[in-house]
Amino acid sequence: MNVELNRFDNSPLVVHNLKRYEKKIVIKIHEILRQRDLSLSDLHRMTGIRIASLSELSNARKSTLNIIHIVVIMQALRITDVREIFDIQFNEEVIEEWNEEMEGYEKGLTVKQQKEVEENLKLMEK
Questions:
Q1: Are the C-beta atoms of 44 and 51 separated by less than 8 Å?
Q2: Main-chain phi, psi angles of 78, to 5 degrees
Q3: Is residue 84 part of a domain?
Q4: Is the pLDDT at 111 greater than 70, yes or no?
Q5: Which domain of life is it from (predicted)?
Q6: Rounded to whole angstroms, how far apart are CA atoms 8 and 56?
Q7: Residues forming a β-bridge with 83
Q8: Which domain does 72 fall in, by range?
Q9: Are the C-beta atoms of residues 51 and 25 closer than 8 Å to each other?
Q10: What's the confidence (pLDDT) of residue 9?
Q11: Does 73 reside within a domain?
């Protein structure tokens, strides 16, 4: 299940920053449950998380993740890598841009990060 982040109600600055870089977020809970012949009801009984919350998460209807829920789901399903549950994939252009930006990086903000911070501060003042 792919997540469309721009549809969620966040502050204008958060939405601006979300749109800054092309990405795809994939929620894999339904896929995992299907492979294991389990249902959301089974996962509810395994974790204690409300079925409605599990449904919202697995159908990408939540804009935030509850880290406690993720950990409990991982424990229940014996998953050791969070990327088995969801994955965030930036496109190749973004990865290349960031790799170039981080070449020779030592500490602090890069020049590009500093420009982004300055842009954010201007937007915060509005």
A1: yes
A2: 55, 45
A3: yes
A4: yes
A5: Bacteria
A6: 13
A7: none
A8: 2-91+101-125
A9: no
A10: 54
A11: yes
